[in-house]
Specification:
Elements (H helix, E strand, L loop, with lengths): L18 H9 L1 H33 L30 H34 L4 H15 L3 H13 L8 E2 L4 E4 L2 E4 L1 E2 L3 H31 L6 H18 L6 E2 L2 E3 L2 E3 L2 E3 L1 H27 L3 H9 L4 H31 L11 H12 L2 H30 L5
C-alpha cells in the first residue's frame, strides 16, 4: 500500500504577507518596471530642479531679473500689422497677444488654402488625363523638395519686385497688385454684416447638428432623414433673412490711388502674402500625396460596384471614395496642420509680426530670453495639441462604423 506524504502549510494572519510572497512581489517584472520608472522620474525632476537653480543663480549674478512681471511694462515699439488695437504705449502682454492673433490668422488662412490646393492636386494625381496627372506630379515634386524657408523668401522677393502703386497691375477691376501688396474692394463696414456673420455661424452649427442627427438615425434604424433642403435654408436662407432685416447693406469700399499709395479697400501686406504662399504651397504638396494615398487605398471592387449601380462620377467620389479614403487621409493630415502652424515662425525672415517675431523683439529689449522662449513653447504646444484634438474628433466623426 502506497503512503501519501502530508504537507503542512502555515497560514499567515490576515493582513500579513508571507516571506515567500514578499520575495515574489519584489522579484516580479511589474514591480521592477515601476521601480525603474519612479527612479527615472525622481532623477528627471532632480535634474530639472538643479538646472533651474543653476540658471536662476547665474541670472542673478548678471543682475538679470527673472519672472513675468515685465509683461505689464510698456512695449515702446510699433507693430505694422495688428488684428486688434495696439499702440507702443501698450504693455508687452498686449504685444504678445497681437503676435499670437497674427499667428492664428496666418495659420487658419494657410490651413484653408493648403487643404483646398492639396485636395485639388491630389485628385489630379490620380486622374486619367495624362497632362493633368503630370502637372500635378510636377507640382508635388517641385514644392515638396524645396525648403519652405526658401519658398517664403522667393515669394517675398517676387512681390517686392512688382510695380509701384502708380504702375499697379489691375486685376479686372477687382483690385490692384503692387509691391506693397494686394489691394481689393471690400464691403463697407456696417452693423448689419456683423449680425449676418452671426446668423451664418448659427446656420453652420445647426446644419452640422442636423447632419449628425440624420446620420445617427440612419445608422441605428436605417431610415433616411431628408435634411438637404433644410440645411441649405439654414446655411443660405437664415443669413440672407438677417441681412435683409438689418437693412440689406451693400455699399462697397473701392480702393483709389491717392498720392503714392491706394486709399480705401483692403490691402494684404507683402509679408503676410509671402508667408502665406510659402507655408501653404509647401504643405499642399504633402497633403496632395496624402489625398492620393487615401484615394488609392479604396479597393477597386468598391468602384466597380458603384459603377455597376449606375452611380455618376460625382456620387462615386462623394459616397464611395471620400468616406473610405478619409480613414487614411485624416491622421497624417493632422500632422501637416501641426507642421504648418509651426512653420509660421519662419515669418521672422520676411518681417511679418507673428509670435516668434514679436518675441525676438521682446527679448532684445528686456533681456528676458527664458521667459519669452517659455511663452513661445507653451503657445505652440497648446496650438499643436488643440489641432490634434480637433482632428481626432473629426476623424471619429468621419470614421465608418462597422457593426
Amino acid at each position: 500500500m502506497m503512503k501519501q506524504s502530508q504537507h503542512t502549510e502555515t497560514l499567515d494572519a490576515p493582513g500579513q504577507v508571507s516571506p515567500a510572497g514578499l520575495t515574489t512581489l519584489i522579484g516580479s517584472k511589474t514591480t521592477r518596471a515601476w521601480c525603474y520608472q519612479i527612479l527615472l522620474a525622481v532623477l528627471l525632476v532632480g535634474f530639472c530642479g538643479w538646472l533651474y537653480h543653476n540658471v536662476v543663480e547665474n541670472l542673478q549674478t548678471q543682475r538679470i531679473t527673472t519672472g513675468f512681471a515685465f509683461l505689464n511694462q510698456s512695449a515702446h515699439f510699433a507693430i505694422g500689422e495688428t488684428l486688434i488695437d495696439y499702440t507702443p504705449r501698450d504693455s508687452y502682454a498686449r504685444a504678445v497677444l497681437v503676435g499670437l492673433l497674427n499667428t492664428l490668422y496666418v495659420m487658419a488662412c494657410g490651413i484653408v488654402l493648403a487643404t483646398v490646393l492639396g485636395f485639388i492636386v491630389g485628385l489630379g494625381r490620380v486622374s486619367k488625363n495624362w497632362l493633368l496627372k503630370k502637372l500635378a506630379e510636377g507640382y508635388v515634386e517641385l514644392l515638396r523638395n524645396v525648403p519652405v524657408i526658401l519658398q517664403v523668401i522667393f515669394w517675398a522677393v517676387t512681390i517686392r519686385n512688382l510695380p509701384s502703386p502708380r504702375g499697379a497691375i489691375e486685376l479686372a477691376g477687382a483690385g490692384y497688385l503692387t509691391n506693397r501688396g494686394l489691394t481689393f474692394a471690400v464691403l463697407q463696414a456696417d452693423p448689419g454684416w456683423v449680425w449676418t456673420l452671426w446668423a451664418l455661424a448659427a446656420g453652420v452649427v445647426l446644419s452640422l447638428a442636423l447632419a449628425m442627427l440624420a446620420r445617427r438615425l440612419r445608422e441605428r434604424s436605417g431610415r433616411l432623414l431628408p435634411v438637404a433642403r433644410l440645411r441649405i435654408v439654414l446655411l443660405v436662407g437664415l443669413p440672407l433673412l438677417v441681412w435683409w432685416l438689418s437693412g440689406a447693406p451693400h455699399a462697397i469700399d473701392r480702393p483709389e490711388l491717392r498720392g503714392f499709395n491706394f486709399r480705401g479697400g483692403f490691402t494684404i501686406s507683402p509679408e503676410f502674402t509671402a508667408l502665406l504662399l510659402g507655408i501653404a504651397l509647401y504643405s499642399s504638396a504633402f497633403i496632395a500625396e496624402i489625398v492620393r494615398a487615401g484615394i488609392q487605398s479604396v479597393p477597386k471592387g468598391q468602384l466597380e460596384a458603384a459603377r455597376s449601380l449606375s452611380f455618376s462620377p460625382w456620387h462615386v467620389i462623394r459616397h464611395v471614395i471620400i468616406p473610405q479614403a478619409m480613414r487614411v487621409i485624416v491622421p497624417p493630415l493632422a500632422s501637416q496642420y501641426v507642421s504648418l502652424a509651426k512653420n509660421s515662425s519662419i515669418a521672422v525672415v520676411v518681417g511679418y509680426p507673428e509670435l516668434a517675431n514679436i518675441s525676438n523683439t521682446l527679448m532684445n529689449q528686456t533681456g528676458q530670453a527664458l521667459e519669452a522662449i517659455a511663452i513661445m513653447m507653451v503657445v505652440y504646444l497648446i496650438i499643436s495639441i488643440t489641432t490634434s484634438l480637433l482632428m481626432n474628433l473629426f476623424n471619429r466623426y468621419v470614421a465608418i462604423k462597422e457593426r
